[in-house]
Description:
Blueprint: E1 5-8, H1 12-23, E2 28-31, H2 39-42, H3 60-66, H4 124-127, H5 129-133, H6 143-157, H7 182-194, E3 201-202, H8 213-216, H9 241-250, E4 255-258, E5 261-269, E6 274-282, E7 288-292, E8 295-298, H10 302-311, E9 336-345, E10 361-363, E11 380-388, H11 391-395, H12 403-409, E12 415-423, E13 432-440, E14 446-451, H13 456-475, E15 479-483, E16 523-525, H14 540-559
Parallel strand pairs: 1-2, 1-8, 2-4, 8-16
Antiparallel strand pairs: 3-10, 5-6, 6-7, 9-12, 9-15, 10-11, 11-12, 13-14
Helix pairs in contact: 1-9, 1-14, 6-14
Amino acid sequence: MSFDAIVIGSGMSGGFAAKELCERGLKVLVLERGKKIDPATDYTDHLMPWEFPLNNRVPEDEVARDYPVQSQCYAFSQATKQYWAKDSEQPYSTPEGKPFSWIRGDHLGGRSIMWGRQSYRLSEIDLTANARDGHGVDWPIRYADLAPWYDHVETFIGVAGSNEGLEQLPDGKFLPAFALNDAEQQFKAAVEDKFPGRKVISGRTANLSVAQPQHEELGRTSCQNRSICERGCRFGAMHSSLTASLPAAERTGNLTIVTDAIVHSLVHDPKTGRITAVKVIDAKTNEGRTYAAKIFFLNASTIGTAQILLNSASEANPRGLANGSDQVGRNLMDHLYGLATVAMFPGPQDSYYKGRRPTGLYIPRFRNVTEDADGYVRGYGYQGGISRAGWKQGAMTPGAVGADIRQNASRLGPWMAFIAGFGEVLPNPDNRITLHATRKDKWGIPIPHIEYAIGKNEQTMIKQILADGKAMLEAAGGKVVAQADASATPGLGIHEMGTARMGRDPKTSVLNGFNQAHEVPNLFVTDGAAMTSSGCQNPSLTYMALSARAAHHAVEFLKSGKL
Length: 563
């Protein structure tokens, strides 16, 4: 069977690219290295807590053997274990003393099943930052180029949020926001009163607060507020490739999916300068196959995409495909993460809240926007929430029965506030992916070697993230009881990006303003690898907007005979 387009990867960006290409009439093959899963049979969101063995924990010996890295993710548990790549089977390497935790899915839909769903647009401030302060290279696009595609993506996936009129966090096409609870409203009022340049808003999340007709057509319904999103959502209330993008692509009749397909390399014809095919190894049988198409979208995730391009080296491309600039694999970025401050909070004592939410509060960036920074460029935002403790402990008091349980459970504990900073990391060519010189995986492919460290700018920023977090909680009446003293291990932000960056000059970048490889016109990269800078916002929404925009232009190029 012949294809017009091949999409490598079925996660957040790959799923969306496939949808867009199929809806524009192309016959599309999606190649996924992980296993096939079906929401109807493989999701675990219908199971009760007591139905999981070991209190939903994975045995320590199994973790040590198979999941030493993946288990560091907050969403790893017995309920989700089947989604994660086994570190024992898919190794990578890092230099001694420079860890990087690469969190990976191993199934159709990728990390779009387990993602945190926070959905924020980049702003003009972000897209001009490199040019303004001289770090990295200039983005070849501006906010006006992305804005209609953000609209397009938000309308399809469904993002609950509020319009705030902030320059650094553009508004969007939102469903009704999930309301802040009474204590969070109190915190919001205090922060905005005492720090006039700061805002506290409901976290913008890709959960359907109210399903719209276009969502219901795909079998999606409104969020049930269960807060177990990482198990997969059979209601389709959270956006994922499996319950939104891929079903939309399938209903066109133009989609073919092949799972257990380990992409080895891309086949390049030096005479035409184009890719002709992709080499694949069957994950189960080790059988080799080749698939041909007219255009190729590489969405294997930031590190996986770099690995494939580097492993596609040839006599004509000795440093790897599309790598005349020597920028493939370089400029790896992951947000500063884990910079949390926890406080007892004097919330209303006669108030509680009902149910759960799929999001919390968000404090958009203010440093180097409405307030100066102390010795660093760029900035950070905060995610968190305020909840009330105590009722579970009261209900489980030893010896309590009947009326005692009811009485104890009514004695609510204190409000506890938690906010954590997500900081921007600057592009640095020394933070990079290379292929290991001697080690190969079980399919004979050189494993990625990840070298990464944060710099002076990030170290300085960390201090102010923690200081500002403490100051806001204390200004609102909170008593800080715990605070991180350093950023979490790089990679655990799960926002890795930048290894095949967009740019204006082929000598210093891999992709042009359409996410098209400068040197290979029928190759498009629209996952995190394409990012030229990181901003401090969760990046998945931007990946999808870039994917939709690139797919549109790829089809136009194809129809006009340019490809």
